[in-house]
Structures are given as structure tokens and as C-alpha cells.
Write a structure and sequence with these properties.
Strand order of the largest sheet: 1-3-2
Radius of gyration: 14 Å
Number of strands: 9
Largest sheet: 3 strands, antiparallel
Distance between the termini: 15 Å
Structural class: alpha+beta
Length: about 140
């Protein structure tokens, strides 16, 4: 089990292994509601991005900003911070319900059905760290 989320100079681990089709799709980058952890924000700021450029405040949580209906980092059909993207992006199409702590697969993703049991278990381990860093409930087993 991972002991901590990736820090400011660390690449994000491959939790859900991107399929070749995934890297050309971008559906998950449209009208994103991706929650950002403090580690995500620090990592993106370490790349030189200003917090106000890529975040919006949603109550007590930060989320990725959308520009023209797409994630601020989605340009010319690809993610410009892919190796350092938010940990939740690395998990997608596996998602965490921040309220209940439940980890599920988002069926809106065309490749959701390809999610392996190993990827789901890996995501649950990271979800515990994410929720702890956000000060939210734990993951349901």
C-alpha cells in the first residue's frame, strides 16, 4: 500500500493504466469536476502554474478549473501536465464519491468495462490517502 500521495516533484503513479484509446479520447476532461488534493495543488504549482489559474473553490474543496467547457490543462487534444496530473485523474474512470467514500467505475467512460480488479484495488488504497488528505471519510471496503 502506498504510504503517501506523490509530492511536488513526483510523477503521478499509474493507478488506472491508460489504454491507447484513452489518450486520444478526452471525454473525462470535458466539464471536469475533479477534486484537487493539497498534494495535487503543490505538484502543479511546482511546475510553475498559479493556483488561481487552475483551481476553483467549491466549498472547502478545490476542483480543476474548466475553460470553454474543458479542463484548463486539456489543450490540442491532450493533457499538458499528464505525468504530473491530479491523482484523481490518474484513477479515472475509477472515481471516489467524496461524501460516501465509495469507490466506483464511471460508466460514462467508453473504457470503463476494461477496468481490472487489480486497478480497482489499487485505486481503493489511493482513495484512502486522498480522503485522509482532504479530511473526509474513509473508503468503503
Amino acid at each position: 500500500m502506498p504510504h503517501e500521495l506523490p509530492g511536488p516533484r513526483s510523477r503521478v503513479p499509474a493507478i488506472w493504466i491508460a489504454r491507447p484509446e484513452c489518450l486520444r479520447c478526452g471525454l473525462c476532461c470535458i466539464d471536469t469536476e475533479m477534486i484537487l488534493t493539497p498534494s495535487d495543488i503543490a505538484r502543479l504549482e511546482a511546475l510553475g502554474f498559479k493556483r488561481e489559474h487552475f483551481t476553483v473553490r467549491d466549498g472547502r474543496l478545490y476542483r480543476l478549473r474548466n475553460v470553454d467547457g474543458r479542463c484548463v490543462f486539456f489543450r490540442n487534444g491532450r493533457c499538458v501536465v499528464y505525468e504530473y496530473r491530479p491523482i484523481g485523474c490518474s484513477m479515472y474512470p475509477i472515481v471516489i464519491d467524496a461524501e460516501s467514500g465509495e469507490v466506483t467505475v464511471d460508466e460514462a467512460c467508453p473504457l470503463a468495462h476494461t477496468t481490472s480488479d487489480a486497478e480497482l484495488e489499487r485505486a481503493k488504497r489511493y482513495a484512502r490517502l486522498i480522503l485522509a488528505e482532504l479530511g473526509l471519510k474513509g473508503v468503503k471496503r
